[in-house]
Design a protein that fits this description.
Elements: E1 2-3, E2 6-7, E3 9-16, H1 18-28, E4 33-34, E5 43-52, H2 57-64, E6 68-77, E7 80-92, E8 95-101, H3 107-118, E9 121-135, E10 140-152, E11 165-166, E12 173-179, H4 185-192, E13 197-199
Antiparallel strand pairs: 1-2, 3-8, 3-12, 3-13, 4-9, 5-6, 5-9, 6-7, 7-8, 9-10, 10-11, 10-12
């Protein structure tokens, strides 16, 4: 499905326990490829700086469960400035689209417009460790996002020492499943073995 020439993908998120993560990992490794961006443990660090309007519209829309919404963020990896991405992630029910550029693109004009008209400004940093698996069929991407922490009103993206705090009280990880049109049957079978709580968590 495509809206305004932007392809849409399915994105499903679940809360899982560390034990469920271990079970899924052992099942996924034989049938999926490791993310080439990962280290020797198939992991990399993600830091996102999210923007919101002066009226906290993005937060209010999320709390209200608005089906169609978008969010702007700047994202870096492993606290490095080698890759700095400006992203706009749009959600249409269970479908998502993501525009992502390396800080030089018409998307910058969109952000500037939002800053001028809706007083868009940086509000929160979110950190986590990602473990990712990929498969070319339907561009399937399955990720485990671990050690999720947040720093409200923190904007120093490249400062690894800024204070951040765990998002969850209990040991919880986030499973994300992304694909184009359909999820291959054998992957459905793997994922069906885990009882997980569906989530709309934003990272």
């Amino acid at each position: 499905m495509i809206i305004r020439n932007i392809p849409l993908r399915h994105e499903l998120k679940y809360f899982i326990t560390p034990a469920e993560l271990n079970v899924l990992r052992s099942s996924l490794k034989p049938v999926m490829q490791l993310d080439p961006n990962g280290n020797e443990n198939n992991e990399y660090h993600i830091r996102s700086l999210y923007f919101d309007t002066i009226n906290d519209d993005a937060l209010e829309e999320k709390i209200a469960g608005v089906g169609n919404r978008k969010k702007y963020r700047i994202r870096i990896y492993n606290f490095s400035d080698r890759v700095i991405k400006l992203e706009c992630k749009s959600k249409y029910g269970d479908l998502i689209s993501k525009q992502s550029v390396s800080m030089r693109h018409p998307l910058l004009h969109d952000v500037y417009r939002e800053m001028k008209t809706r007083l868009l400004r940086p509000v929160v940093i979110v950190d986590y460790i990602r473990e990712a698996y990929i498969h070319p069929a339907e561009e399937v991407r399955i990720t485990f996002d671990k050690q999720i922490r947040t720093g409200l009103y923190q904007t120093a993206m490249f400062d690894a020492s800024i204070p951040t705090y765990p998002v969850f009280d209990d040991p919880v990880e986030v499973l994300e499943v992304k694909y184009d049109e359909f999820l291959p049957t054998y992957m459905q079978a793997i994922l069906s073995g885990v009882t997980a709580q569906r989530s709309a968590v934003s990272k």
